[in-house]
Specification:
5 helices, globular, 39% helix
Length: 152
């Protein structure tokens, strides 16, 4: 696995292999991305993580840089994986998911069982992309992605 974290640049032509954007809560929730990334240690995959080790959230230039990085990385990635935590509604993640659901790219979705809008998310995803199977833990989400990698 090759790991790229915001603000490091992802250049598709330079980074060979499949790429996965890992979308999900960053503010006000645990660092689930760190645990999730370890599940791909032995995979031939470029993992694009928008969560920074240190993020000065109230700095306007950094905030813009963060949004632009996420936008570009999500567009460049071969697929996107979404995790909805129990701690926050993840409004930006919901927005990003909506954009991806109407794209041609593979989308993988995991929802913590205690996520406040779980049923809404299940209904919306079922209406837009009924073939997507939502899972309820990070390990199952990683297994779906690994299946995609092996089938590619």
């Amino acid at each position: 696995m090759r790991y790229i974290e915001c603000p490091d640049e992802y250049v598709r032509a330079k980074d060979k292999g499949l790429s996965l954007f890992i979308a999900g809560g960053i503010t006000g929730c645990s660092d689930w991305q760190k645990d999730y990334a370890t599940l791909f240690e032995h995979e031939d995959l470029v993992l694009l993580n928008p969560r920074r080790e240190k993020f000065p959230a109230n700095h306007p230039d950094i905030n813009r840089q963060q949004i632009v990085w996420e936008y570009n990385a999500l567009r460049a990635a071969d697929a996107a994986s979404f995790w909805f935590t129990k701690e926050t509604l993840c409004p930006i993640t919901l927005y990003e998911l909506g954009k991806q659901l109407v794209s041609y790219k593979p989308v993988f979705i995991g929802v913590h069982p205690d996520y406040a809008r779980k049923e809404d998310l299940e209904i919306q995803v079922g209406l837009i992309r009924p073939g997507i199977r939502i899972v309820y833990d990070l390990s199952s989400l990683a297994d779906q992605v690994k299946g995609w990698i092996r089938g590619y």
